[in-house]
Amino acid sequence: MKQYKYKVNGAQYDVTINEIQGQLAKVVVNGIPFDVEMQNSQLAEDNLPDVTTTAAPSAAPAAPVAAAPATTEAAPSGAGEGTPVKAPLPGVVTKINVSVGQQVKKGENVLVLEAMKMENNIAAEADGTVSGIAVKAGDSVLEGAVLLTIA
């Protein structure tokens, strides 16, 4: 396991490379796992040094994540036309509170984005109608990614 810290456009990213098999690496960026295809890389699994860390014992094991209740949520419909609502930080979409065609008011909570074990309510940036949803619950997104569009 190899650990790195990067700063991109003022945003801090903690990257851990857990495993490399051929040109595929299993990495974790700010707590979010990704499979990364490497091109022209000199890294090999054998070259990764072992990193040992000690952590304070936790008081209780982490609770399993409960399955999300069944919703009438449709698959992503694309970004649509209008004002985009973008991710303010990288994270995982945990809940979408609107659907395409729904009227929203500026400031209304349209979805929930989990980042660094915190839930962040993402608000509509304008009054209007949701014209497209570009993500679904469970999707990992990067900072600046279009989540949905309001026309």
TrEMBL record:
Disordered as annotated region, ranges: 52-85
Keywords: Biotin
Domain Lipoyl-binding: 78-151
Keyword Metal-binding: no
SUPFAM superfamilies found in the cross-reference section: Single hybrid motif
Any one Pfam family match given in the protein's UniProt record, by short name: Biotin_lipoyl
InterPro entries according to UniProt: Biotin_BS, Biotin_Carboxyl_Carrier/Decarb, Biotin_lipoyl, Single_hybrid_motif
Compositionally skewed regions (Low complexity) per UniProt: 52-84
Name of the protein: Biotin carboxyl carrier protein
UniProt organism field: Alloprevotella rava
